[in-house]
Structure formats: structure tokens, C-alpha cells
Amino acid sequence: MTMVGTFSERPSSVSANIDNMVGAEGITNGTHQQVHVNGLKEMNTATTRPKTHLDRRNSSPMMPAFMVSAPGKVIVYGEHAVVYGKAAIAAAISLRSYLLVTSLSKSRRTVTLRFPDISLDHTWNIDSLPWDTFAHPSKKKYYYDLVSSLDPDLVAAMKPHISTVSLDAPEETRKIHQAAASAFLYLFLSLGSHNCPACIYTLRSTIPIGAGLGSSASISVCLSAALLLQIRILAGPHPDQPSNEAELQLERINRWAFVGEMCIHGNPSGVDNTVSSGGKAVVFKRKDYNKPPAVTPLRNFPELPLLLVNTRQSRSTAVEVARVGALKQAHPIVTEMMLSSIDKVTESAHELIRSPTFDKMDPATLRHLGELIRINHGLLVSLGVSHPRLDRIRELVDHAGIGWTKLTGAGGGGCAITMLKPEIKSSTLRELERKLDAENFERYETTLGGDGVGVLMPAVLKNGSDEEGGEEIDQEKFLKAKDNTALEQLVGVGVGVTKKREGWKFWRP
């Protein structure tokens, strides 16, 4: 795996667009060494520390608006068993977050984070932020550094600037807003510099929040990718990009997304941000909670139609994990057999997908994966982590005969996923959807195993408008999208490799 050297040596695509549009200093790398980060390998720079600031020359034009998008995730096989050191498979879904980055005039010295879906809108004065603390030689982090924990001194330096976020909001809302602001500000101050240009970072998401679908990781990936693009670190993406180079860019995005996740969750597994960065699916296993999990990408994971249904029933991961722990204490042998059986389900799916004869178009393949989903759900029911509304979803799907259903995540509420059978009648699916709506379920027709983080540079799409060269996505249009459907129609990346929206580009190792 080779590291891209100075910025001028990179292929022409998104990175070249930035080179042409923003006057910034070139980046020079020194010698390389491999380090492991959250199950990934990265090429580290051992000698020369590159300039990674958002510096700009006085003569440079403003950078045009650009967009970054990253998917949510579901656990397909292995939840709860993974707590006991066994394997699980998580995959990307086509519900996504979208981040629009808009540069302001050079006379402005503010940075704004907008997340209208949760009513977050906060502006900081760039010059008043704690740059000296973050830039101190003992504290400064560079894009290639391994950051496995938050620096308490940096967190403390940020605190006065976080405590003012959403002061008048209810306590629970304020906590969510300040967690999101912490992730943004920690990355912004770590990767940027005092001389960075004024910008507005506007987030929209089609991923339900708090439903175990990786919404925070998706946001962290978007922020990481956008900030790394602004400091001109990332090469590509472009269709002819070598696999190892694409993988390196994803690793860089993923490691800083993990830092964002630490700001939000404290001690995340790193799985959600890994899936959101790279897309497709991963197998992960964590035997030692003092170490990162072992993560194996499944690049051959098929893109499959998926019905995702939210029970709207709140749940607590801690409560459901404790429930299985209590069952294991009371019935250790039987519970261990069920957990081992779940592990065998995951292993069976993994072996099929990585098999040299794996054919994602073969109906027998889909049936095999679907049957494993049904078995996995039954075992989770036996562990006591289902809920009557989850079982009602499975009952309705089974009666319609359209696919295989299981809970996803901790259970006790949250969401269920249904892997759809091929060639189902649209009338049958519509009838099922009417029944789900009548019982106050929230449903999403989505796709499993799609692309990870993507870039739209500049923020222009061909949306059938009369605008020459395409429709420019600006703040007003982005904020005006009233719901998920309108947002996807405006900026959605599309579904499937052959149906991607023209303009969006993805790193595909």
C-alpha cells in the first residue's frame, strides 16, 4: 500500500477540484509505517509532520459548496452474542446523513453547525476558540495520528464553548445538541487552524435517531470526511482509483470519525463508524474490551432490498444486555448454547459470502441468508430480548410471505429488518405497508450493503432543472426539503452501483 505524496501528485477528481478552487499549501509526507487503528491499517508518517491547516492564500477564491454523505447501519446477525466475544455482521443501509459545507466571505470569522432535524443551530467566533491549547506541541494531533482516547485537557478547553449550546432547550435535547457540537468542535479544532475560513456546516439525515441504526456514526463520518477534504488530505474518489489507495482514504476518514464517536458515546466499539465509512458489511468480534474489536470487511456483501420497520418503542441497550446477563447467570449452560448457536448463524453467513462460488444473484443464496435471519430472531426471542411489537412485525411479514424478519440491535423495541424475497408482488408489499401504518409502525424501504461515504464536489446535481450545468444545492434548497422523501429527491445518492446519482463519487476498495 503506497501513500500519496504531495497534493499535486494526486489523481484528478474531488481532490483536484479542491486544488483548483482553493489556494492552500501543498502537503508533503515523510517515510511510512503501518499502525493498526480500530481493526484497520493506516500508513503513518514517521519523520516529516505535514501542514494540515485550513490555511488559505489571500488571493484565493472561496471554496464552492460541497456535500458529503454517509450511511447508517444495521446488525444483520449476531447481536447479544457479540457481547460475549462471538462474531456479528453489520451492514450499511441506504438511509443516510448529508452534510452541506458552505464557505462564507473572507471578512467573516464564524463557524456554524446547523442540524435542523433536531433543531440545533449554533455559531462560534473562530478567533475565540481554544486554538492555542489544541495547537500546543504536546497536544497537537495530525490527520495520520492514532487517537484512541480523548485528551481531557482538550475537552476541558472546549467546555466553555460547548456549554453555551442550546442553553434554553430542555435538558434531554440540550444533551443531544451538546454531544453533536462536541464531536464537531473536537474534530474542527484538531484538524483545522486559527486561519481557517468561515463556513456553515449543515446536516440533514434520513436515519431515525436513537433507533440503533448508527445515526451518530454517520454524522461523525460526514464531519470527518468534510474536514479532511478541506485540509486537502484525501485523494479521490474517482472510478480508476487503485483499491489500496481508496482503502487508505477510508481509513483516514474512519479514524477521525471514531474520535467523533468518542465525543458522543464515550467508549464506542468503532463498528458503526467503520461500516458507515466503508459501506457494504463487516464481521466484527471483540474478545477483549480493553482492545479494539477485530474487524473484517465483507466487500462481496450483496446489495439487497430491505424493509426496515421502527416499532417506535423506546428501548435501553443496557437493560437488554443486563437481561441476557441475568439469564446466563441463572441458566449458564442453556444460555451459552443459545449464544453459541447465534455465533454459528453468523459464521454460516460469513462462510457463504466469502466462498469462491458465492453468487449473489442465485435465489438459493438469498434463501440461505434469509433462513439464517429467521433462525437468529428465534434465538433472540429465546434470550428474552424481543418485544410484542417486534414479534407483531414478524407475524405480519410472515403472513404476507414476502421475506425473513428479525429484530436488529439490542431489542426490547427499536427496529426490525426484513430481507425481501425476489419478485414479490408490489400489491402484496403495499398491503403489508398499509397494515404497518395502521398499527403506527414507521417503515422504510431501503437497501442493505450499499456504498459508504460519498462526496459531491461541487454541490451540483442534475435534478431535471433548467439551471445550466445542473442544479446548485444551496442552503435555502437544502433546508427547505420538508421530509426524507424531499431530501432524497433533492440530494440523494441513489441506490445500486448502476443507479447512483450522477455527481456523487465513492471510495470503493
Describe the protein's topology:
Elements: H1 14-21, E1 32-37, E2 40-45, E3 66-77, E4 88-103, E5 110-115, E6 120-125, H2 131-135, H3 152-162, H4 171-191, E7 199-205, H5 215-230, H6 243-265, H7 271-278, E8 281-285, E9 294-298, E10 304-310, H8 317-330, H9 332-354, H10 363-382, H11 388-400, E11 403-408, E12 415-420, H12 426-438, E13 442-448, E14 454-456, E15 460-461, E16 471-472, H13 475-480, H14 484-491, E17 505-506
Parallel strand pairs: 5-7
Antiparallel strand pairs: 1-2, 3-4, 3-14, 4-7, 4-8, 5-6, 8-9, 10-12, 10-13, 11-12, 14-17, 15-16
Helix pairs in contact: 3-4, 4-5, 4-6, 5-6, 5-7, 6-7, 8-9, 9-10, 11-12
Could you characterize the architecture of this molecule?
It is a single chain. The chain has 509 residues and is an alpha+beta fold. It has 14 helices and 17 strands. The chain has helices at residues 14-21, 131-135, 152-162, 171-191, 215-230, 243-265, 271-278, 317-330, 332-354, 363-382, 388-400, 426-438, 475-480, 484-491, and strands at residues 32-37, 40-45, 66-77, 88-103, 110-115, 120-125, 199-205, 281-285, 294-298, 304-310, 403-408, 415-420, 442-448, 454-456, 460-461, 471-472, 505-506. Strands 3, 4, 5, 6, 7, 8, 9, 14 and 17 form a nine-stranded mixed sheet that branches. A four-stranded antiparallel sheet has the order 11-12-10-13. β11 (403-408) and β12 form a beta hairpin. α8 crosses α9 (332-354). The chain is globular and about 65 Å long.
List descriptors:
single chain; 509 residues; 17 strands; 9-stranded mixed sheet; alpha+beta; 14 helices; 4-stranded antiparallel sheet; disordered N terminus
